[in-house]
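On clarity, I found the account of how folds are encoded harder to follow than it need be. What matters is that the chain and its backbone geometry are given together, residue for residue. I therefore recommend that a typical entry be quoted early in the introduction. An entry of this sort, consisting of the sequence and the corresponding backbone structure tokens, reads as follows:
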Amino acid sequence: MSDFHAPTLEDRNWFCQRMQWSGFRGCEYNFTNTFLWNEAFRQDIIRIGDFASVRLTDAKGTRYLYPAGRGNVAEAIEALKRDATELQIPFWLIGLTDEGRSTLDNLFPGRFSYQENRGMFDYLYLVDRLADLPGKHLHAKRNHIRRFEEHYPDWRFELLTAENLPECREMDEIWYRQNHSEGDTLSDEAKALRKAFSCFRELGLEGGLIRAGGRVVAFAIGDRMGADTYDIHFEKAFSDIQGAYAIINREYARWIRSHHGGVVYINRENDMDVEGLRKAKLSYRPDLLLTKYSALER
């Protein structure tokens, strides 16, 4: 299908509109992610009437994002199938939740086989839990924050602005040097973050930082997706500063709660099967672990 093309900033409005119509909470259904990660994973987008989809191509092959929008989703799926036929490739759909799997199975009984993708499960947390850290299970997080506050009584939270964004760039460069060997090429995540810095205003991104001892020691960047979910794209903190990650997590959640009425969940995205990420995300006790499947046409 010739209408597939690389995402540009001019695509943001129509793409986001269809994502919002769908009500999907998965991080794949956020234009920011599609745009920022396009260098790492070739992600061409398409508008099919009141639906949108993504054709993702990487080392694993080519797959299609389950269409998001409103109306007759079966027609949108058949349009994607025609593209796969033209390319002479297997027809894979990705990003399906339990609800999407059920819908696809009802529309096309027996036509698809399904595979659970654990590394792509999204971790969603009630905004109040991240903002207040209640209960014994989050006691360790509260302790980390207390240690931070004791060591840095001058700490403060600031919103990301044009004025302090360069400081976050500088902090990220220091963080990268501390966590990667000299001579390493920039990771996919580092490239995506630098792109976010460059297109911060155009993408409608928001963020917050923690300043302690006069310098930036942590920051977070995100945006709202849909009616009840806020997506955190990046969170960075110096790991040698106890409590830095915990306090940016809490303070940004508090800012989201006070400035985005209607947000129920904060989506901290997936763990990509990285053990350390999985452990960190599970330590906050997710309120919703969003199951994801891929579907292969038989």
